[in-house]
Design a protein that fits this description.
This protein is α/β, with parallel strands linked by helices and 382 residues long. It contains ten helices and 22 strands. The strands form five sheets. Strands 1, 2, 3, 4, 5, 20, 21 and 22 form an eight-stranded mixed beta sheet that branches. The chain has a six-stranded parallel beta sheet with strand order 11-12-13-14-15-16. Strands 6-9-10 form a three-stranded parallel beta sheet.
């Protein structure tokens, strides 16, 4: 069955085009054309609207009072469905530092059932921890911290049936560079975060293959005049991606702009780091083994430290445009193509092209989400 989507603008990988018509055939994208189709086909009319790729959230722990670490796949299915209302069509369920036994179980559960989700597609798994440093632990439990261990990682990868796409480590931990070389040889992305590393330590591990900085500015050694730290490494090193939480609480808009200017907006990855309180009322929740209070748009643990976020990725998309620090095209790339490329999943998501799954969103000119399509079918609309 062939149909067309008409809209004023289409955001493609390397260009913005429109008005025009985008072909959808059997759940996949076809060709774009400016002229109306010659033959009669069903046309979805989004006059005055914009079409962009489905958003890609590569760092998300939970939503709708569900969490990946609950080890309940019914909960992950609910997260998957709920993400459609955030414009997200692909994601990496993200773990927390926990006991090896619980991580084993969570990885097996996802590997055994990931194809059962009916909403946003699971494109792999992100292990956030447990190879971190206590000074910047955030809401990660330091009781389970350890030095990077290739044999342990191999066990987790076997349990996940090769689904681990990314793992975060602190570069100052003993053996971090050797671990990074071994893991990246397998095509797995090594990210750096929850770390008090100095610039040289971060640089050594980047030179060993690490390519992502975890929620930049947060949970890492800061930039100062005599020691660039992890933040300086994220800004100053080449060929790295920098995750960024654009909720207005984790990072000041001007600090976000400085990072974007330093790295280039094609290297900034907008993420949510959303925990179970996402899309839920204010109140008391948990993240891992810690109680969390959600109030005034922030999730915090008892110490006052931020504990993930309750951000929706479509709101981050709108925020950076409203703040005047990114154009719509740049904002879309930072929440689609850049995250997909940063985790080596851009072969299945992140941009619109013929023969790819027709996962896309409809935006109005104020960058507000109006609809989410999965495999060419409208699965959410306002």
């Amino acid at each position: 069955m062939k149909s067309y989507v008409y809209a004023d603008k289409f955001f493609f990988k390397d260009s913005v085009m429109g008005p025009g018509y985008l072909e959808i055939t059997e759940g996949k994208f076809g060709q774009f054309q400016e002229a109306p189709p010659n033959d009669y086909f069903q046309i979805k009319d989004y006059k005055d609207k914009w079409i962009a790729p489905g958003l890609v959230d590569t760092h998300i722990h939970g939503l709708l009072n569900r969490d990946v670490m609950d080890n309940d796949f019914e909960g992950i299915k609910e997260i998957s469905e709920g993400l459609l209302s955030c414009g997200v069509t692909s994601f990496l369920p993200t773990t927390l530092t926990a006991s090896a036994d619980l991580l084993n179980k969570v990885l097996e559960t996802i590997a055994n059932h990931y194809q059962e989700v009916q909403g946003a597609k699971i494109q792999g798994i992100y292990l956030e921890g447990p190879f971190f440093t206590e000074k910047h632990k955030g809401a990660q439990n330091p009781s389970y911290f350890s030095d990077p261990d290739v044999q342990q990682f191999q066990k987790w990868q076997e349990l996940s049936r090769g689904m681990i796409k990314k793992i975060a480590i602190a570069p100052e931990r003993e053996g971090a560079a050797a671990f990074t070389r071994k893991v990246t040889e397998q095509g797995v992305v090594v990210a750096l975060g929850h770390s008090d590393a100095n610039y040289d330590q971060a640089k050594q591990v980047v030179e060993s293959g690490a390519t992502v900085f975890v929620h930049t500015y947060n949970g890492m050694s800061p930039l100062n005049s005599r020691e660039p730290g992890m933040v300086g490494a994220a800004m100053g090193l080449n060929n790295v991606f920098a995750e960024l939480i654009c909720d207005g609480h984790h990072v000041h808009p001007i600090s976000a702009k400085i990072l974007m200017d330093a790295c280039g907006r094609d290297q900034v990855v907008m993420i949510t780091d959303c925990m179970r309180a996402g899309a839920m009322p204010e109140g008391n929740y948990t993240l891992g083994e810690f109680p969390v209070s959600v109030k005034n748009g922030m999730a915090t643990i008892e110490s006052g430290s931020l504990a993930g976020s309750i951000l929706k990725l479509n709101d981050a998309l709108k925020n950076v445009v409203d703040w005047g620090i990114a154009t719509p095209e740049e904002a879309i790339k930072m929440s689609t193509l850049a995250p997909a490329m940063s985790c080596h999943i851009d072969d299945v998501c992140g941009y619109i092209a013929p023969s790819r799954a027709a996962d896309f969103i409809v935006l109005n000119k104020n960058m507000e989400l109006e609809a989410t399509y999965l495999n060419g079918e409208c699965r959410y609309h306002i």
